[in-house]
Amino acid sequence: MKTRRRNAIAILATGALVSILVLLGLFWLRWLVGVWRSNLLPASAREIAVPLSAGQLEPGPTDDPNGTIPYLVHARMLPDYLYAFLGVLPYLQARPPGFGQRSHVYRWDPKPDGLCVYYDAARGQIIQQGIEEVRDEDGTRTFHRFTRYAGPQGIAETPQEELGRFMAPISDGCVLKPQVVYDRALRKFFAIDWSERTVRQGPPLPDDERHRPVQIRNLWRSPQALDVGVRSASREESHKRSVVAQVLLLERVLVLDASGRIDLLDPQTLELVGVGGALPTPKTLVDVSRSRRLDDITAYTVLPLVRRASAADGEPSYAGLAAAALSREGLALRVEVYDPNGRRVATGDTAIPPHTGWPGGRTPSIPIPSAVAAYSLLPGAQFLTVAKFALESLHPPVLLLFSHLAGPHLTAAAGCRSLALLPDSFVAMAARRGDTRPAERILLALLYIVPAVFFALFLAWRVDRHGVHTGLPKKTRAAWRMGVLFLGLPAYFT
User: Fold this and answer.
1) What's the pLDDT tens digit per position in 296-345?
2) Which residue, among 210, 245, 203, has the nearest Cα to 227 in the 3D structure?
3) Is 181 in contact with 190 (CB distance < 8 Å)?
4) Could you tell me which of 109, 107, 103 has the C-alpha nearest to residue 121?
5) Which string of b and e fits 5-24 if b means at least 16 CB within 10 Å?
6) CA–CA separation, 465 and 55 (whole Å)
């Protein structure tokens, strides 16, 4: 009995080790195919330039009588973005205080006289530390270190229960005068003015699923994969006003909702005063749902647009926003521009322009979406598509089935570093199709899994034949057959 138990433990331990090694090898092969596919895209299919004009963002006559386009929203995929999502770089970037996207450190200066602002979960308060200058009555200046504690009810020099507790805050770490904070438990926006030692709070949001803020002011994810900016289309700037990107806009604060909607917050009243736009949905290989889920986007950047006026024209005004998003596999990029009323006024998608020289003599008459071209039209794309499908067919069938079931719920970044489940596989893509019914999606996924099942049947037949030659009992051979049918190559090598 003990020998049988030891043998079972040894088989399970060996199987676990072999499974990790096999899945790791398949992962790197799929990753190389993804890198080669990304390298197929020419430079023209990696960037977008969406023109902006005064007439686009504000109704009425423009200041430019010739109708010239003063500015462009320029977005481009950064090279070798796949290296950035392996997990090592995001891990290292999140280690310094304040660098992680979900960090509770909002400002961190490591110098002795640096300013630090962070959330203390134990106290439930936001803490500011630094050195300030104090002038005495005789005019001499002295410096002393200070620590301030902010809660929903105010600011004090010492931690006090009367200040209240922030339960689940998300904060604007860019502007501290005032610092805008949203508490997901209290469902309120707060404005912490550290210089005036005051805390203002807005009205509570409705207790429903319509409002779920996740980011304030600086709306971005994975900046190492996406570069977005506003640049001049011409060196001549004869027009009186210009549209520029300015994150430190005080008139309106952008708030990203979990649904992908971009709301506008009035920093004075701390109320949501309207919808500024939404995150784009890049054109991918399949027609995905138009829900604009954050998990379906690898990287995004949102820039507010500010109409900067001359001194005679008064203060700058909010002129809309520009949003850019990168698809799951990083093969498609989309930019959308919204006016001050939240209307979409301009869009742009990465695409291959019509030209000659396609494989097979095809000459498309319309631009081809970059993701479609990278899978089927660019030289070498079809070979890489077949290689991708073949590598997925070597994956354990049971894990392919789980990849389909979990496909709509896995994050985009997980596709670049997942060993067991394959978020970017064809079976997972079938689960995310928005143009088919559920039964059709299941049927399509089963068709994708068929080669993996046949391969597992072949391996099970070889294992059974080997068991017959070595004299294994019938029940033992049946157990091995079932293991190989479900787990494929890892069980076969074990």
Assistant:
1) 888 899 998 887 655 555 567 788 899 999 988 888 999 999 988 899 98
2) 245
3) yes
4) 103
5) eeeeeeeeeebeebbeebbe
6) 76
